[in-house]
Amino acid sequence: MTILRAEIAGRFDGWLHDVNQVCGHFDAQCLGEGFSGSIREHQTGALRLSFVDITQARLFRSSKEIAQSDCKHFYLVSQLAGRAGMEQAGNCVEMQPGDITLIDSSVPNNFLYEDSSRQISLILPRHLLEQSRRFTEVHCAQRIPASAPMAAMANRLILESTQQGALSVSESEATLEALVSLLRPVLCASDSVPDAHERLFRKTLRFIDEHICSEELCPEAIAREVGVSMRGLYRMFAKKGLVVAQYIKNRRLDFCAETLRQAGSEQKLSALGYEWGFTDSSYFSTAFKARFGVSPSDYRKRYSGR
């Protein structure tokens, strides 16, 4: 019995090590002698996903594991077989074959696999969701049922992407963008009649976009324009999980990236950054690479051959 338990513990530790290598820092708990687990990574271009098989284990991420990770992404989880329990921010969902859910890597989570389960976990860059959610909340740990047409089409697209030959970076990024567009109605659903606070928030975002190129755009100017105190402005963004200055910077970077993706874009990078409100070309390059993983010049090269 002791030898058997040592063997299980060895398999469990090896599996958790593999999970941390592929998916980032997690902790886990073995739930019984029937434990088994494996993970297989698939990467092509910007598309990173893994096939995860688990039986009798609990996988979780606490503030400790979050502090050890970059948290620049979401996990789009598709249940292929078996069942699993997914929990985050007070939301609990039982995943069944064909179901999809979204998990935020920067928020504590808890996954329970009491029986055999097989999932695909797709890494979805945070900036793709931020671009699409400007007026809405992103709904994490919410079950998108297999019966929903969007779930069926998204699952088909994910599986097809793993069966193709090597995708270029631009092709794989287009696949990720297509997935976000496909699932946006359910991942970023908004109320049809927003309350006064939501209307004010939307007004604030519109003002930011209208003045995004201005060097004068700053939290003080925004608060003055929309008629709130600085504290009220910070609180309004904090409720959405955002920081005002960071949001402005990310919007500028998103517009820069959109320009670089356009065919025939030959504008000097320093001029491009300046056009969208970056007065320091070195800071622009550093910030761009931190958000998109590559320099502005390399990002443009990805799309120059389209």
UniProtKB/TrEMBL annotation:
One Pfam family hit: HTH_18
SMART domains found in the cross-reference section: HTH_ARAC (SM00342)
A molecular function GO annotation: DNA-binding transcription factor activity
Gene3D superfamilies: Homeodomain-like
Keyword terms of this UniProt record: DNA-binding, Transcription, Transcription regulation
Membrane-traversing stretches: none
Source species, domain of life: Bacteria
PROSITE patterns: HTH_ARAC_FAMILY_2
Ranges for domain HTH araC/xylS-type: 202-302
Known role: Regulatory protein of the TOL plasmid xyl operons. XylS activates the xylXYZLTEGFJQKIH operon required for the degradation of toluene, m-xylene and p-xylene.
Name recorded for this polypeptide: AraC family transcriptional regulator, positive regulator of tynA and feaB
